[in-house]
UniProtKB/TrEMBL annotation:
Domain of life: Eukaryota
InterPro entries: Anoct_dimer, Anoctamin, Anoctamin_TM
Keywords associated with the record: Cell membrane, Glycoprotein, Membrane, Transmembrane, Transmembrane helix
GO annotations of cellular component type: plasma membrane
Location of the protein in the cell: Cell membrane; Membrane
Major location category of this protein: membrane
Protein name: Anoctamin
Protein family: Belongs to the anoctamin family.
Segments forming a coiled coil: none
Topology in the lipid bilayer: Multi-pass membrane protein
UniProt key word Glycoprotein: yes
Residues passing through the membrane, by range: 268-294, 346-366, 431-452, 475-496, 595-618, 652-672, 748-770
Keyword tRNA-binding set for record: no
Length: 837
């Protein structure tokens, strides 16, 4: 047990309160299960450590680590109090409190920005304020979540406390600031000294099992408002106005999210919400494009010709594989042809160009919005602190080197072998139909997803990054590249490889001289790509939401069932939180990855599937609330972390945006039939009509199919069954007919189409990239109003915090050698400083 170290009245005292059984819960926590304070009801709990007091083989070693850790925490100024679980006698909790002096010290160490005076710059009224009577219903209840006063802030300095806006010391540092500072100390408190190397950090003790958990407290139950004095009930408010399903239509209370969970969580939900709002515009345009295609499918000339019994019904198509495949009539693809017209029309081209512009607007406006958040959340000049080494890195360090910045010797790991990136292959299953193929592909993707995740983590662990940030950045790039190939490879194959190099029936192309190259579905490759995208996007969204909702809920349900005890009405706050799930070490990594993969589907292949933004929008409306519900109700409170932006995901999004222009241009050029139709319409379907030329699409179906003599089949590819009345068959290509001097060679039409496709790609890419460049240049990254506020804040910081230094300097200036040199007292006024500034 932990004993009294300096007497019960000492500020560094550790009080170990035991519960000796019985049916009722005694006054160990003042009969206030939702209390956030020590037993004295005065000192606030800033962090909780949990450990098991049990007799195991390594008990003595773990117990030694615990005592050393506690001693080091007390030396660093923390106040501790231990208490036994009301459910499990072996489980103990250590409450951690940060006294005022310690808070001030570490607020300065961490450069935490705190208020110096209220914001006196008048805010510009919204252009849409006349709609406030309507829009107010889409925002959280202002009576519950009140708008906080805006302040100008400055990095905290302990010696200039009087210049900061301190109304109440108990609330000057928010709960998230306090827990962040507490975790900073816990991460650096030593517990073992081995030679010249000092072992420190709570993370490694958690990995070793010395401590079972370390977490800050939720301030209340999520579904019951706490009546305790001093409890802000922010968790309850977040659940009611944000995480509850009935609030799905409301805007997110981002400032409260940031206040409760920290900037890193806040910036994720801000990005996800902004992305969802921008998706609404893309979804409306995409839905309009889909409706246009749906309404024109029956009036399409080429679709009519395919379905016409006198045209498509009399055209016999060649088999699409060797021996086993049969001849078939063109009108058998009537329904597929109509569906193709829904997605393969002029509206799709317009939508692809629109999405290329949309993605630029999304990224540029996100930069502006992110700049606003950086200022509002005090991360403009965010200085990332020197992070402690990861336990995995520290365990393998056998060398020391001098830190060029601090001059202190630090342990490091020398890697003797280069890191090798694994080769990745993806094999698409042979398909009977496009739907079955897409389902099989989705199952394969989900299986490979688990495999590639383990490989990426294994490679990153092998690299042994020193800090958590380095680890996450390294893993982010690897995981995205693996997922990129895993999720998109089948789509790239269908769009740009399948059916592109198949030869003709008399001379098919074989892979490795043995396997005949696969041809597209009779309805075309674009309809296959559309089917693939819809199934993968829809299946992935459904599967991820089921996992995110069911798994944490089932785990917590099992844990409650296995550890039956008193109800939550008598279980103390720290033990209620202990029974919740802990967030994984990678935190929001998988949430970002899921959304970035979706962003790729929405942008890279949108020319084949205009409904992709609609599906993404519906999914994200659920995703926001599911993530909110999960972290608010099923997980322990997350340790708040600073974050200035979305990190390594920003350049990945920019790379996807650039690639999307090329992929959509190539889909329209090589996967759809739009370019061959336009070439036929403007070049080969002209006939005189009065005094001018008329253009028509009549006859396109016949012109797009070449003729093949069935006697020219090779022995390897000749069908096993041939109808007696057939001498020729048709296939999709532009080749001369049998008997022509250039038999089976490409026609002039083919070269016209190729030239048109290349010209289309070059022109579209240049137009879109030029437009993207203009938009990026015209839209400033930081709004003008934010720039003004930043300048005002810098000025106030200079005046308020450094004016004292100037006065102290002037008082210390004394005459030197009376008759030789005299310094006049310098005392700059506030007006002079403002003029200089």
């Amino acid at each position: 047990t932990i004993s009294h170290s300096q007497g019960p009245s000492s500020p560094l005292c550790v009080q170990h309160v035991r519960h000796y059984g019985g049916t009722g819960v005694r006054t160990e926590f003042n009969d206030k299960p939702d209390s956030l304070f020590f037993n004295d009801g005065v000192r606030r709990i800033d962090f909780i450590l949990a450990y098991e007091d049990e007799d195991k083989k390594d008990f003595e070693k773990r117990h030694t680590f615990q005592r050393r850790k506690v001693a080091s925490l007390m030396k660093m100024g923390m106040e501790l109090e231990a208490i036994q679980s009301v459910i499990d006698e072996k489980l103990l909790f250590v409450k951690v409190h940060m006294p005022w002096d310690v808070l001030c010290t570490y607020a300065e160490v961490l450069h935490i920005k705190l208020p110096i005076q209220p914001n006196d710059l008048s805010s510009r009224p919204s252009r849409w304020r006349f709609l406030s009577c309507i829009t107010k219903h889409f925002y959280p209840n202002e009576e519950l979540i009140t708008k906080e006063t805006e302040f100008f802030t400055a990095p905290f300095e302990k010696d200039r406390l009087e210049y900061f806006y301190v109304r109440d010391k108990d609330v000057f540092f928010t709960a998230s600031m306090r827990s962040r500072m507490a975790y900073y100390i816990l991460s650096r408190a030593p517990y073992e000294i081995r030679g010249n190397i000092k072992k420190f950090g709570i993370t490694k003790l958690l990995d070793r099992g010395v401590y079972k958990a370390a977490y800050p407290l939720h301030d209340s139950r999520f579904n019951v408002e706490s009546k305790e004095e001093g409890c802000p009930n922010e968790r309850f408010l977040l659940y009611k106005e944000w995480a509850h399903p009935k609030s799905f239509y409301k805007m997110q209370p981002l400032n409260l999210i940031r206040k409760y969970y920290g900037e890193k969580i806040g910036i994720y939900f801000a990005w996800l919400g902004f992305y969802t709002i921008m998706l609404a515009l893309a979804a409306v345009v995409g839905l309009g494009c889909f409706i246009y295609g749906y309404r024109t499918q029956d009036t399409s000339t080429w679709s009519k010709e395919v379905c016409d019994p006198e045209i498509g019904g009399k055209i016999v198509m060649c088999p699409q594989c060797d021996k086993e495949c049969k001849y078939w009539r063109l009108n058998s693809t009537c329904e597929a042809s109509k569906k193709l017209c829904i997605f393969d029309n002029f509206g799709t081209l317009v939508f692809a160009v629109f999405m290329s512009i949309w993605v630029t607007l999304f990224l540029e406006f996100w930069k502006r919005y992110q700049a606003e958040l950086e200022y509002t959340w005090d991360t403009v000049e965010f200085l990332e602190q020197e992070q402690s080494p990861r336990p995995e890195y520290e365990a393998k360090c056998i060398y020391e080197r001098k830190n060029p910045i601090t001059g202190v010797k630090i342990p490091y790991y020398k890697m003797n072998l280069p890191t090798l990136e694994p080769l990745k292959e993806y094999v698409t299953p042979q398909m009977a139909t496009s739907v079955t193929a897409s389902l099989i592909s989705f199952v394969v993707i989900m299986i490979l997803n688990t495999l590639y995740e383990r490989v990426a983590i294994w490679i990153t662990d092998f690299e042994l990054p020193r800090t958590r940030t380095d680890y996450e950045n390294s893993l982010t790039l690897k995981m995205f590249l693996f997922q990129f190939v895993n999720y998109y490879s089948s789509c790239f194959y269908i769009a740009f490889a399948k059916g592109k190099a198949v030869g003709y029936p008399g001379d098919p192309v074989y892979l490795l001289g043995k396997y005949r190259n696969e041809e597209c579905d009779p309805g075309g490759c674009l309809i296959e790509l559309t089917t693939q995208l819809s199934i993968i996007m829809g299946g992935k969204a459904i599967w991820n939401n089921i996992q995110e909702v069911l798994l944490p809920w089932v785990k917590n349900l099992i844990l409650r069932h296995c550890t039956r005890g008193p109800s939550e009405k008598v279980i103390p706050r720290w033990e209620q939180d202990y029974r919740l799930q802990s967030l994984s070490k990678l935190g929001l990594f998988y949430e970002y990855l899921e959304m970035v993969i979706q962003f790729g589907f929405v942008t890279l292949f949108v020319a084949s599937f205009p409904l992709a933004p609609v599906l993404a929008l519906v999914n994200n409306l659920f995703e926001i609330r599911v993530d909110a519900w999960k972290i608010t109700t099923q997980f322990r409170r997350i340790v708040p972390e600073k974050a200035q932006d979305i990190g390594a995901w920003q350049p990945i999004l920019q790379g996807i945006a650039i690639l999307a222009v090329a992929t959509n241009a190539m889909i329209i050029a090589f996967t759809s039939d739009m370019i061959p139709r336009l070439v036929y319409y403007w070049s080969f379907s002209v006939y005189p009509y009065g005094d001018h030329l008329n253009h028509t699409m009549q006859g396109y179906t016949n012109s797009s199919l070449s003729i093949f003599n069935i006697n020219d089949f090779s022995n390897n590819s000749r069908p096993m069954k041939t109808p007696y009345n057939i001498t020729t068959c048709r296939y999709r290509d532009f080749r001369y007919a049998p008997g022509h001097p250039k038999e089976y060679e490409y026609t002039i039409y083919y070269w016209h189409v190729i030239a048109a496709k290349m010209a289309f790609i070059i022109v579209l890419e240049h137009i879109v990239y030029f437009t993207k460049f203009i938009l990026s240049y015209v839209i400033p990254d930081v709004p003008y109003a934010v720039k003004e506020q930043i300048k005002r804040e810098k000025y106030l910081t200079q005046v308020v915090l450094h004016e004292t230094n100037l006065k102290l300097v002037t008082k210390r200036l004394k005459p030197v050698n009376d008759g030789i040199v005299k310094f006049a007292e310098v005392n700059l006024t506030r007006e002079e400083m403002e003029l200089d500034f």
